[in-house]
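Dear colleague,

Thank you for sharing your sequence with our group. We've completed the structure prediction you requested, and as agreed, I am returning the results in plain text so they can be pasted directly into your records. Please verify that the sequence below matches your submission; if there's any discrepancy, let me know and we will rerun it promptly.
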Amino acid sequence: MTTLLLSLFLALTQAAGAGPISTVRPLPAPLSVVRWWDPPPSPYAAGHRGVDLAAPVGSRLRATGPGRVHYAGQVAGRGVLSLTLPNGLRTTYEPVRPLVAEGEQVTAGQVVAVLTEGSHCPAPCLHWGLLRGEEYLNPLTLLPRPSPRLLPAGPAGL
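Please find the predicted structure tokens below.
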């Protein structure tokens, strides 16, 4: 599965016209996914165009990569932040109180927003999205890959 995600990520970054970029998590580890990415079968069909990550209101959110603030403001009464990465992909965060302004350059790991109330989850959560143009992608493909770990061998015969 990890190989598939890495292949997808490399394909996305190459398709966007740039090599891979170094990324970080938008929230500290461990991430707890409340609702997974569920792409719609067509642009206007129902689906979940991002992932929901559990986090308390007031959590400090980080830029997943270096880039420029595409949008920082309100959409339908909720705070939204959108960052354009050097490879042309765009990440989105909501509901948030942006700490950066449109056009501002950001670095990977920089605190760019604070999670606010008003999510569509039963408990507070960050809705984190990823787009290439108008196409929604799975933002989890941006996450750094964990280092493989070898476990000690079990008792003989198992």
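Summary note from our side: Confidence is low (pLDDT under 50) at residues 1-19.

Kind regards,
the structure core
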